Structures are given as structure tokens and as C-alpha cells.
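Researcher: I'd like a structural prediction for the single chain below. Treat it as a standalone chain; there are no partners to consider.
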Amino acid sequence: MCLLIDSSVTALEIAYICNFIVSSQVKPNPNSDASKKQQVEEMFDNISPRYDFLNHFLSLGVDYSWRTKVRKNVNSFGAKHILDVATGTADLAIEMTKIEGSNIVGVDISQGMLDFGQIKLNQKNLTSRIRLTQADSEKLPFQEGDFDAVTVSFGVRNFENLLTGLAEMHRVLKPGGPMVVLEFSKPTNPIFSRLYWFYFKNILPLMGKLLSRSTNAYTYLPQSVAAFPEGEEFVQKAKSVGFSHVTYKPLTFGICTMYTCVK
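Model: Treating it as a single chain, here is the predicted structure.
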């Protein structure tokens, strides 16, 4: 909740203030004084050896179909030069190579995740198609309009400042290019929603802790999903940084949502 803000502050400045307040409330380790950005980097470095297995196992394999939908969406824009933000171990970047003639740059704050991603690229002989580099999603090391498309899968939820990250992705996009975001969301069907949250709050953290040996990572996940501004709220945030046309499509009973934001 954002109250008592001076009337001289602009709407965009208010949005930044509100976003900072919300994003700073949910961190991987609430007992740590480190910034959310530092905690996210450390968390993914720690779970990187088991991340791929856990990602597919805990999502029951549905994540494969979600990435396919993102690739088809990006391909419909004719995009070839693609930036994959919060690329992790490069699963979505690898999926993007199915677009004929595409080349991809993947960035992530966690070097541990990138190291495992690079192993996969070497094994699949994709080093000429995908380049991985460590970078902060809120301070991208690229020029304005460098990319035909930008993708993010399950990463914007971890930004320390969501609007800053969205603005950066808008900056590096060519006019008319899409930013396609895949992010967890909250199912609306009452019965399915109860089952979903029981799994998300009880089974997933327990399995995640046992298999990843991380106390915080899979407790932070449902907390961050619950706090994330989804649906129309996310649409307004994307528009506030300059995206002209923003649509969204819930996937798999609303477990996740695909946002398409056009510059």
C-alpha cells in the first residue's frame, strides 16, 4: 500500500516507489540484510547443480510446452536476434534455436546457472547460436534497439525493481519487437486453486528442500508468486515504461501466464 506521497511526484515516480515497496517485501532470505538482487544471485548459484531436474520434476514436465508456446509467439513476429533475460541454464534460449536463422544472447545474474547452461550448449553444439553472459537484468549491457525480441521465463518475479527491468528490456528492443514474458500466476478456479496452493505451499517446498538442499529457494517461490503483480496489473506496469500493446494468455488452468508486450 502506498500512502502519503507528495502531490508533486509524477505517476511514473509513484509507480517506482510502490514497486520498490512491494518487491522489497519478498526475498529468498528475510533474515538477511543483503539486497534482493544479491540474495537471488546466491540462491540460484546454490541450487544450480540440481535446477534443471527440479524444474522439470516439480512442474511435472509441463514447462516444456510453455516454452514451446513462447517460441511460436516470438517466431510469429519474424524475430531472429533474440535476448533471453534471466536465462538460467538456457532452456528457453535453446528452445529459441528452433526458429530458423535465429541467434540468441542469454543473460543471467547467476554465474552458477550460466556455467551449467554452457555445458548444455557444448553438448548440443549450440555455441555458435547462443552466447551466454553474466549481466544484471536491470542494467543490460546492450545498445538501444539491439534486439528483434526479448524473452523472460520465470525471471521478472525475481527482479529487485520490476519497472527498471521492464524499462531496460523495452530500451534494447527494436520498435515493433515483442517482449514475451512467461511467469507463474494464481489459478482462479476455486477447486483447482486449493489443490494448487496446497501443492505450492506444502509439497513443493518440502521436495525442493530435500532435493536441492536449499532451505529458502522453494519457500521463496510461492511467496514471490503470491506477491507478483499479474494480469491487468502487470499490463499497466508494462505500458507505464513504454510498451504500446500488451496482451496476456493464462496457460494450464492459470498456473502460469504468457505476456506479449510490443514496443
